[in-house]
Amino acid sequence: MSVGSGDGRPEEVELKIGAELTNLPIIRSLASSIAMRADYDLDSIADLKLAVDEACSTLITRADVNATLHCSFTVSKDEIRFLVKIRSTSDVVPSSDSFGWRVLTTLTDHANSWVERNGQGGQPEHLVHIELAKRRAEGPA
Amino acid sequence: MTNTQSSQTGNRNSDTGYEHLAPMFAEMAKLQQDDPRRGEIRNELVTGHLPLAEHIAARFSNRGVPREDLVQVATLGLINAVDRFQPDRGTDFLSFAVPTVMGEVRRHFRDASWSMHVPRRLKELNLAINSASAELSQRLGRAPTPSELAKHLNLSQEQVYEGLEAGNAYHSMSLDEALSPSADSDSLGETLGEPDQALAGVEDYESLRPLIERLPERERQILTLRFFRHMTQTQIAERIGISQMHVSRLLARTLETLRQGMLGDEPD
């Protein structure tokens, strides 16, 4: 099996899972399995796995009680895009000057974070997003 | 364990620094089990021989198991040796203690190496992938892909996936690591102190710094090389002399340690 439809259209893999640190291994192994089956090199597989781990940990620590982590991987020919979001009472975007952010930007080709404000019915509710992209490594293949 | 044998012989006739402790074993053996003096002597014997436990732990360090854990395990082995040693048997304590302590440390390595049961076939597959990966990295100048590994090893891609996934079942330390020579710490020394300068631009630097300082030296070096020198895991693996998979596991663990440390740091 390889991820991605035969005709080159991007393939989407989604995962909804409780925002608990104990669930990280499941998300991590999904990330690794997707990159592995897309035939990324071992360094890129490991990088994506670490980056997904870091992004999800960042969001889990700001999650509301009983919140669900929404993860999606979009696999196209030369790029894997990972989007993760969480419901949070905080509307603070993960700081791009933090060490965690440096980890994300080192490990991936693209990292972005934003907050969607959803304040319905008095309760402030925010969706904090982190998006990462890992491109297939270029090199003498 | 032939090298254990030879180190005993070496110890017996040379100046070991523990000679002054030897008569205390005979003294302890003569005392009743409930004599309070017995406990005192036992303590003195354990404390006096602690450098031996530390020395043995050091011989097994740099293999992916934290040094403090090894010292603790070796110390337990030492306490067992002190309790079980019978001076009237004619052997000296060191000849008895060295293999006992080493056995304890080795057992710890065996138990810590795989966190879940992985069939032998998968362990071997994982080792084969590890060495093929090192070889191909050299040739390609970058880490290989699963399909390149499959071709090189004459395996199906599914088998390579299986072998790579088996690597995730390794705990903090891997079998290949236990078999490889321990890392040469001198080659790491040159990057010491660097995280400090490199981290100065990071806003959580103040809370991060003590956490990084507390990391084992090799973990700190790997962190620096990956995030401040932008070396790939394969390059780091080559430089340090361990496998890329092991670098990957150490990095994952280090980042987790740092994240947990940062969380614990917050006022709430």
TrEMBL record, chain A:
Q: Which organism is it from?
A: Actinophytocola xanthii
Species classification? Bacteria, Bacillati, Actinomycetota, Actinomycetes, Pseudonocardiales
Q: What is this protein called?
A: ATP-binding protein
Q: Which UniProt keywords apply?
A: ATP-binding, Nucleotide-binding
Q: Does the keyword ATP-binding apply?
A: yes
The organism's place on the tree of life at top rank: Bacteria
MF term (GO), any: ATP binding
UniProtKB/TrEMBL annotation, chain B:
Question: Which GO terms of the molecular function aspect are on file?
Answer: DNA binding; sigma factor activity
- Which keywords belong to this entry? DNA-binding, Sigma factor, Transcription, Transcription regulation
Which Pfam families did the record assign?
A: Sigma70_r2, Sigma70_r3, Sigma70_r4
**Domain RNA polymerase sigma-70 region residues, every copy:** 45-114, 126-178, 212-260
The record's Gene Ontology biological-process terms are: DNA-templated transcription initiation
**InterPro entries per the record?**
RNA_pol_sigma-70_dom, RNA_pol_sigma-B/F/G, RNA_pol_sigma70, RNA_pol_sigma70_r2, RNA_pol_sigma70_r3, RNA_pol_sigma70_r4, RNA_pol_sigma_r2, RNA_pol_sigma_r3/r4-like
Tell me which domain of life the UniProt entry assigns to the organism this sequence originates from: Bacteria
Q: Which SUPFAM superfamilies does this chain map to?
A: Sigma2 domain of RNA polymerase sigma factors, Sigma3 and sigma4 domains of RNA polymerase sigma factors
Gene3D superfamilies assigned to the protein according to its UniProt record, in alphabetical order: 1.20.120.1810, Winged helix-like DNA-binding domain superfamily/Winged helix DNA-binding domain (1.10.10.10)
Q: Which protein is depicted?
A: RNA polymerase subunit sigma
Species in which this protein is naturally found = Actinophytocola xanthii
